Input
Amino acid sequence: MTRDSMNPSTPRRRGLTFLEVVIAASILAIAAVAVLELLVSSDSVSLTARRQALAAVEAERALEICAEAIKDGDDIPHNGTLQGGMQGEALLGCTLSVTATNITEEFVIPPAGPTGNPRAVPIKLRFLAATVESPDGEVLVRLERAVPVEDF
Output
């Protein structure tokens, strides 16, 4: 006979108590919730990155169209709402706006020889800025480009 079996007031331990099981289950549940929150936040970040990448593609496309219109002497389209298409639902309802500003920059041409004088040459540019905004007004992307022009 063992010593514990001789004394009836000594409790026997044959496994885990209910309290130990509850504590272990709580720790596992907290860890599982943390992992799920991490998955949800990474999905949200992934969607935001995808929206910004698609918005950059659309803004670049709009700048290219506007630059070609300027070179052809046409007016540029200024605003538009993005509808499905290649960008899918990620940019649905977003707005694309293009603004144009006329600027003149002077570029200095260095002298040709040791006795020459530098020359300032004015170059006329149309500065384009394309902005894609989400339906709630958040700017997803803003791209800029300068296009040389003959006259304003």
